[in-house]
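Batch 3, record 17
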Amino acid sequence: MESNAATNAQIDQRVFRRLASRILYEERENFKTRKLSPSEMADKIRKLIEFEVTKNDD
Amino acid sequence: MMIKSIQLSNFGCYKGTHPVINFSIDTEKNVTVILGANKSGKTTLVQAFLWCLYGEVSPKNGVINSDVKAEMATSSSREVFVEIVLIHAGKEYTIRRTQRLTKANERVRSDDSVLKVQYKEASGEQQSILPRDCADTVNSILPKGLSDYFFYEGERFDDISKKDVATAVRGLMGLNAISAARDRLDPNRAASVTSRFKKGLVLGNAQESNRLKQNLAKSQDEREKIMERIATAKSEQEFYLRRKDELSEQLSQNAFAKSLQAKRKTLENDVRIGQINIEQAARRILTDFQRGALAFFALPLIDRALAAINDSKQDGEGIPEMRQAAIDYILERKRCICGCDLEENEGARKRILAERNLLPPEHLGTVLHNHKQTLLGYRNSSTGFVEEADSNYVNWRRNIRFLDEKTEDLKKVSEEITATGSIDIESIETEYQKNEAKLSELSRLREKLLVDKGAVERDIENLEKRIASLVEKTDSNNKLQRYIAYAEALFNWFDASYSQREEEVKADLTESVNRIFSEMYHGRRIVSIDDNYQIKLFASVGATLEEIGDTGGLRAVKNFAYITGLVDIARKRIAQGNGTSENSEETVNETEPYPLVMDAPFSATDEKHIDNISRIVPGIAEQVVIIVMKKDWVYAKPALEARIGKRYVIENIDNSETSSRVREGE
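Prediction for the assembled complex:
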């Protein structure tokens, strides 16, 4: 996973890759099970980003 | 996806609740063969799959067994169901469609069928999918658009290239998950994760920031609506383009219309080129006008200004870096830097004073000099303006004439086609013209929508810049800006990844279908897959490749090559890590098997190709269910025998065509 944006000083490549991978996994799972509505999915992805970025900062 | 079993109750010719039919899921012996005579219920079995999964009913008189329906007493009810158990992505799904029928006043009324989907968690716990999501779940396991390929009815199947498969292929290849992730993070969408983060930023100037935020949300909504309209227009365009091909083919089949049709194609191409040339010429006129018009129309003023500057004799360039205060100092001490006494030498004193006038802060001379240079620049830029404008206009007019001529010729050819006399041709031609008008209308609409989209995106960009300038420097804002940076980077990555992945899918599919086709077919043909995942056949004619038509056996082989090619790449699709562990960032390969259920697959194929297809298909598809007549089975059996895991026979009960059963054996 290479990203131009990820070369930005604010982005940690490792966190970025983990996030991309997890978001894709969550989207795939939801395609199969349809457990979450679009709004719930957006909430889940938002929390994922907050969690991974904060964890890395700490 | 692998099909474990199917059970039928009162469906079509299967009266009553039948025992479960288990399919072979053995990796080596992956073929289940079901033999049946004509009218025994072979096709009904494939229709049971399609009805259960998608609610499609092929027999127009409904799905219930006709004996059961006839025997229903007044006020009684009966139930039809089909239940399929399948394994997909490591989960076991039970999919059941039920329909209740009630008899009242001598009439049988059918309720809408009800789809129920359940799956087992890894722990073994059974979970139910919400009723509103059942159809989507089935569609994500096996897209409805591809059902004709995976549940192949040899006698009913039409040409693959006439079907709309692009959306379905994207779904099957997992591209939908990438596009969902991209849309979820799209900063241009009001409800996206990125926009939600942005909404959380605390801004200064509350009144102004609220206004900007409201305008931003409005522009984002507007953009989404435009995007939806663009997508609709695109799919309509694709529909009319397909229809155009069909109508064009119908016209070409008529000997009278054939040469006219070829002439029309050339003219249509000319018209298209003419339109492009006109657009380019118009753009050129605008660009050149914008560049030179101001200077050209200001020429009289420029000349008068230049004359005034020249008359003033003040347009000299001052000594660089020198200021009037330095000259004043020299004049006051009355001695030049060269040693000349300025009190005695009046000429030198006057020259120094003239230089002084060219220097800052008064620096009138320098200002005039610079202005003169600017005016001369304007003057130069207007050189050739009239000639260029004239030539651009002549070019534009020439293209307009070309387009008018070709459009007129096109109209004449169309009239000639209509005048060929055949009523059939006339009606096809009329539809062709309506189709063309619709295509032009859609093309104009898409252009307009793209312009609107560009405008609203510029608004969004400007509003975001203004909002960004109001963001206060707080810890909470800093944190949010970090999240936004990640969200935007992720969006860019998913966006680029989607395009790249789609290219890869197309290349893989082309390679796979070509390889399989060359193994199945004895002749030399090249298969190409276009942007809409449509298959086209080419043959070498001299040094060039030409697209060729297909019929009967060749079409059947083409269909098989496409289906098996699709199965081949579907199971090889690359997935990202499962995201559940620390190693989740690594890319891993995930394979998904797909079945092929084929009813009378060899009806249009000769012995040689039956043998070829029978050898190749079980090696590619992980599971094959073949429902076949005994006469065709004779040719397929030698190639398939070693791979058979389950055998069934369909029999009519008491020679009745309304009551069949499936039993194990051959």
